[in-house]
Write the structure tokens for this entry.
Amino acid sequence: MAERRHFDGVLIVGAGLAGLSAALAAAPTRALVLTGAPLAKGCSSAWAQGGMAAALGVDDLPALHAVDTVQAGAGLVDPVMAALLAAEGPDAVRRLAALGAPFDRTGDGDFAQSLEAAHSRARVARVKGDQAGRGIMDAVVRSVLSAGHVEVRTDAVLRGLLQQPDGGIAGVVVQMDGRLVEIIGSATILATGGIGGLYEVTTTPAELQGDGLALAALAGARIGDPEFVQFHPTAIDIGRDPAPLATEALRGEGAKLINRAGEAFMDAYHPDAELAPRDVVARAIHAERAAGRGAFLDARTAVGAHFPEAFPAVFAACLSGGVDPRREPIPVVPACHYHMGGIVTDAEGATTLPGLFAAGECASTGVHGANRLASNSLVEAAVFGARAGRAAATWTAAPGKVLHRILLNPLAEPLLQDLRRAMSTNAGVLRDAAGLLELLALIDRMELNQGPCGALIAARLVAACALARQESRGGHYRSDYPGQVQPARTLITLKGGVMESLAA
Ligand code: SIN
């Protein structure tokens, strides 16, 4: 019998920018943040190098940011949600700056703004080149720790949800102090991040394996677009797991992609060469590597001696792998970077289950469609995290004593590594029916022995929906269906563990 505790306020699982933004916004309602890692560690937000996209410049407008967001999403972005994100983005950046996030400034004290691929304006607010995630999270963590209404447990690993007979979510089950503990709250927000840990090569913390997504799906929440995974073209290939990122801003500065023979190859793949859409660049690098020619990011001329001050995180990562990017090209490999799909929410972060909210990468607000616009994820986490926190704070839970526990098993380590390899091979940058069927058969075999594991359920959502989408769009590329024919979101629920499609 698990111990049961009651918390008079909102439960928030996850301590990235979305979870902590929700916690701050819940005030004066109390918030309990549950995470299995020290604050500003185990979350992708703290690792972000890019920055926050927001229309802060005099030549920019939220409407232009919204248009770029819709355009990048390859036909599947919800324009209303994109407009909301773009409208609230500038205030989100100002709010974080007021908390102490040290955004780069112009001589006049305005936010300095950088240009990234697929943005029609320079609108990315950065922190010391590639330090956005760390700078923003340090400021937010300080605010959370001094906020009287927020309590934080950094030793609580999500293992389950508590569900009422009407489907409503009453709380969570966490592994804490070496045992399972049920915690009942007034509302629950999942801010559990993405699925990078399902892939052999990832730029995110490897412990992010889609547990929140899997639990919400098992509880019957609507899931959107799980097949859409974004692969960052230039993770640094120095054998580290997770792989450090070489920010896209390097290509913005003029760094070239070359193969082992020293030939710049991007012109052969896209007229925009190095600044082509992220999925195009990822496939080009994949092709060069698969052909045995290798792929390297050459920043010797574009950045050169300025590397240590201009891109300190990338510089340190390269040196840790014995590569000096001032003098030699950086070996690169595409890596799982961001999950566009997730738990479907409305503009207030509410899922289709009463009492359950979701925010950040595990959520599907509809702003990313098939391909997230660069530097839209931190801004989404801040905007929709705060919205979810405010909405959850005013949620009144229906009273009820009968609770069903939905529990996940951990996946045994050697099997997890097999799954990660299979996901990269068969549900990675290139996909086809044969590979996806092979992957699904592997997941079936593993599930037979291991029972319900978050990693397997999340992997199945990706693989099954990638198999069903017989076209190529955004981050999802089917080599057996290269055209575009299906301009509708994937919306599904699990009924008794079986997937059911819903009309988009
Ligand atoms: C990057 O800096 O290349 C990543 C930015 C992002 O994923 O938004």
Q: What stands out?
A: Residues 235-335 form a domain with the Flavocytochrome C3; Chain A, domain 1 fold (CATH 3.90.700.10). The pocket of succinic acid is lined by residues 49-50, 247-249, 337, 374-375, 377 (CB under 6 Å). The chain has 13 helices and 22 strands. The chain has three domains: 3-193+340-393, 235-335, 410-485.
